[in-house]
Amino acid sequence: MLHQLVDCHRRQLLRVGGAGLLGLNHPHVLKAEDSQLKPGGGGKAKRVIFLFQWGGPSHVDTFDMKPTAPDGYRSLYQPISTSVPGLHVCEHLPGTAQMMHRFAQIRTVHHRMNNHNSAGYTALTGVEPPIDDQRLRESLDLFPGYGSVVDAVAPNQNGMPTYVAYPHRIADGSTTPGQRASFLGKRHDPLFFEEDPNAENFQLPQLSLPESLSLDRLNNRRELQQLINRQTERLEQSAVARGLSAFYDRSLEMLASQQIRKAFDLSAEPNAVRDAYGRTTYGQGCLLARRLIEHGVKFVTVYFSRSIGGRSKTDGGWDTHGFDNTRMYEILPEWHLPLTDQTLPTLVNDLSDRGLLEETLVVWMGEFGRTPKINANRSRDHWPKCYTVLLAGGGVTGGAVYGASDKYGAVPDRDPVTIGDLAATLFYSLGIDYNQEVHDNLNRPLPLARGQAVTELFS
Fold it and tell me: Which of 177, 255, 271, 378 keeps 20 to 30 A from 41, CA to CA?
């Protein structure tokens, strides 16, 4: 196995195959002390596309397969070779397999949250909540999402929104925290919408004025709104209230911006390109992400699904424990894996062909992985103790594998990466000093990330 080829030292990176990298016969190990990158932020990324796989994909059935594990643990799928010599992925990801020389894997991401809402919040912010509770709700005591942090510390100056998120507001019972700006204030919320990018004549109501309302009339209303806000500020000084004025200003700017309208115009894409991404909500959402970063948006989050998943073979997220006569191993090959195999390599190829990949970090991850042991329903349950995250672009070394799980995929065997480390890595890629602080609603200073960046991943 790959992790057996190197000594077990903290923060070592195994580089395999790929252009400019050494093959398995001569593995090259980059130690932390060899890195020449600045600790404050030294990646090449100017933009991030964050593909959030709500429900929790099984790492041992996709990218960290354990073909020598015993029955009851070993995947029922077969591993196949990839564009990186010696590296294998699931047989139901043949298109992605041919693109693995562009991806880096972190195989040891872990945290302690076993419920979807608390794990989702953890994955979207890099911060664990005080308790692991499915009833976790949005609160100003909780940390903001990555894109909102970026909007607060490194906002766009190009007339485009810093942060856009769509096409679902994810929830499992209550709305999952971490999707908005929390204590940073409403001004740093994402431009969020739930309209389907795959719908005919897709457009955002946020960018459309009623026929009876002109921009001049809207500006007059703005004067009245400013007066109301001044009175309101005397009564309420919370972060949310302070952000309403800026949020209103941003809405007006969007209504008047041809640049923003152009970015959201999916009809400008050739049919062949739209077909390549797939005529699905998620597929067209990934295409829209490419358009948005191409037009200057800095951080885009695309949610795989509104729900965590379940019985359906045509909809829903990755939470397929096994229900009735519908099993995980029947659902994934018909829905999740084909959809992933169409969109993920298409997006990365498209970014590369347009010269955007080197300065765009693509992140593919869920809130946790799946249990190494297969349950009685021939499925796997929640497992936050060790799972795999994919990165591409933004200066990341393609074909790299960082860290190794044990022989079952249960726990990190080498180079564990906390969720705080992953958050630090994301900010580092954007050149943001992740040690700098923001202040919460009680004015307490908090670092952007509670970990250390995996700088070894960056070339």
Answer: 177
